[in-house]
Amino acid sequence: MADDHLARTIGTTCTGTGPARADFVLRKAKQARDVPELGPYLGDVAAEANRIAADPDSLVIVEGSQGTLLSLALSDDYPYTTSGNCTSAAAINDVGLNWRHLTQVIMVVKALPTRVGEGPLPNEITADDAQRRGIAEYGVVTGRPRRKADAIDYDLLGYAASLNGPTGVALTFCDHLDPTIRGRRTVGAITQRVRRVIAEVERATGAPVTMLDTGPRLDDMIPLWTE
Q: What residues contact residue 187 under an 8 Å CB cut-off, 6+ apart?
């Protein structure tokens, strides 16, 4: 059952993540090992992740979820947050990965930030404006329109970077920033408008932008890293 406070005040997705985490903390939640049918699929995730990561020829990728400034314990936007922390350290902690195995932290930054639910969003534009400009987005879980901004707040980005320690930045939705770059895949296609944002993102994060997302297809990307 959806929590009325979370649904109406916070704008949660009502998928049960928060209540499940609360039950886990209270030691009331059922675990996967309590379901006999799941037995063949269970294993020690932490041990396996660390075993693979210790092999120099192997790779473990840990993907975080949601924006850092939705972090429960780290955001000034509380109570308009999610039910956990959304940092690189929180992600590796969730899978039990030894920090000594960490070699890269890729910080994903939207060229035009978004937010779903309540809470502040600097530089926000109206839903009608987003539709008019062809840059409207919708939540993956709920299908709700995402609130959209037309510029990055670089002070907030710098704070998020200080919490994550990125070694590189993936700048996404560059085609929403400048539609002329949509679907392009070569460095020569990068426009001055996008270059200016790259420079500001690198200044704020202290990390190089290593890839640009330019469209909806998986290969709509411009790599910027060097060997």
A: 222, 224
**Torsion over CA of 17, 21, 24 and 30, rounded to 10 degrees?**
0
Task: Taking each helix axis as running N to C, give the angle between helix 154-164 and helix 192-205, from 0 to 180 degrees, rounded to the nearest 10.
Answer: 50
Domain ranges in the chain are 104-223
pLDDT tens column, 33-82:
999 999 999 999 999 999 999 999 999 999 888 899 999 999 999 999 99
| CATH class entry, domain 104-223 | alpha beta
Dig out the tokens for 156 from the structure: 């907030």
Question: What pLDDT, in 10s, does the model give residues 71-87?
Answer: 999 999 999 999 999 99
Indicate the helix (H) or strand (E) that contains 149.
Answer: strand 147-149
Location of structure tokens 């980005």: 157
